[in-house]
Amino acid sequence: GESVGLHLPTLSVQEGDNSIINCAYSNSASDYFIWYKQESGKGPQFIIDIRSNMDKRQGQRVTVLLNKTVKHLSLQIAATQPGDSAVYFCAENRDSGAGSYQLTFGKGTKLSVIP
Amino acid sequence: KAGVTQTPRYLIKTRGQQVTLSCSPISGHRSVSWYQQTPGQGLQFLFEYFSETQRNKGNFPGRFSGRQFSNSRSEMNVSTLELGDSALYLCASGEGRYGYTFGSGTRLTVV
Asked: What is the pLDDT, as a whole number, of residue B45?
């Protein structure tokens, strides 16, 4: 079936190290993906997005890679900081017709940064 | 500009009751989507409203409904509450395909 899922439920990294969070998707027609960060007690916060005509996109300390051949996304966080501790979700923005789109989320990866 | 505002932040209801949650989108945004977040099912799409019309609906029973007003504010209603409806309900405000901003959510507990 169509789904967006994550490979690892938890990830612990040392402060200052780089973090890599992975995501697999199954809908080959998907053309827009978003990474969100969710801190405790808050809603998902946009981190970075990528369209299917790109392989890589960089933001401030974050990079998203898209491999359409194997339907895989990754989020790389450089020099991870304690404030990066949160749950990270990848989401696929699917066309539902009639101009409507809906986000289909993966189950999330909890990132813990060790000081 | 102000973000997405959801009220109330917390609710405790009894089984069988109904509940109404409110979402005020970012000014100028005409699309409002609702999502349910639970530990077991993760984030799931409930429905989307655009210019007062429901444009899309997820796979939830008819007990879940919503509406949108002319000022784009939206409400969702859950009738005949069940224990399994306990969740964080999130509202997302959008101005097109490529921009969604989430509110902090309403935490609903059904006892």
From this structure: 95
